[in-house]
Amino acid sequence: SVVIQECYVQNTAREYAKLYAAEAEPLEGFGEVPEIIPIFLIHRPANNIPYATVEEELVGEFVKYSVKDGKEVNFLRRDSEAGQKCCTFQHWVYEKTNGNLLVTDLQGVGMKLTDVGIATLAKGYKGFKGNCSFSFIEQFRALHQCNEYCEMLGLKSLRTTHQKQRKTTSTKSKNLPNSSTLKKMVPKKAREHRDFISSEH
């Protein structure tokens, strides 16, 4: 069921957020860490829709800190403390899982987040498959810009190493992989999106 999957995804992301908090909170100057609120599954046998989810109501301005397709630049995401810490959380999870998993759709009120998604590579990660297209991982890798919180956590820049090479013409042409060979490695799986998941429970 979609509802059960939604619970599973959000609570998995919540576990990563707890680990992130445990690492980030002790750092001097890091401050408050974003939290993914728990989502509970309830069974209502007498109801037409037997499963529903229950979560804390978030009161205040609801902001999407990371967007589905990664193309849109959201100023609240880029300029706010919560937005920057969400981007760092994405980078941290990406690095912790060796680029196999990414928490997407980070949104909520202030530092409290809900309705998140998870993208995994096609094969999944440790038996877990996300509910977002794995193209999100590629887009994140291409578009993420590290901020001061990434630096505090010592995360490695996702900018490719050839951009940092010294301008020696001899090595340049040899080291750059041909872009067409890179594309062939990406399986052309159906890029399904989360839009069909309804939130009415």
Task: Tell me about this structure.
- With 201 residues, the chain is of the alpha+beta class.
- It has one domain (2-153): MHCK/EF2 kinase (Protein kinase-like fold, Alpha-Beta Barrel).
- 35% of the residues lie in helices and 14% in strands.
- The protein is built from seven helices and eight strands.
- The chain has helices at 2-24, 75-79, 81-96, 135-143, 148-152, 169-175, 179-184, and strands at residues 35-36, 39-43, 51-55, 63-64, 101-104, 107-109, 112-114, 117-120.
- The protein has a four-stranded mixed β-sheet with strand order 1-7-6-4. The protein has a two-stranded antiparallel ribbon with strand order 2-3. Strands 5-8 form a two-stranded antiparallel ribbon.
- The longest helix is centred in the N-terminal third of the chain and has 23 residues, at 2-24.
- The radius of gyration is 19 Å and the shape is globular.
- Mean pLDDT is 80; it is low at 161-201.
List the helices and strands and how they pair.
Layout: H1 2-24, E1 35-36, E2 39-43, E3 51-55, E4 63-64, H2 75-79, H3 81-96, E5 101-104, E6 107-109, E7 112-114, E8 117-120, H4 135-143, H5 148-152, H6 169-175, H7 179-184
Parallel strand pairs: 1-7
Antiparallel strand pairs: 2-3, 4-6, 5-8, 6-7
Protein name: Alpha-protein kinase 2
EC number: 2.7.11.1
Keywords: Cell membrane, Disulfide bond, Immunoglobulin domain, Kinase, Membrane, Repeat, Serine/threonine-protein kinase, Transferase
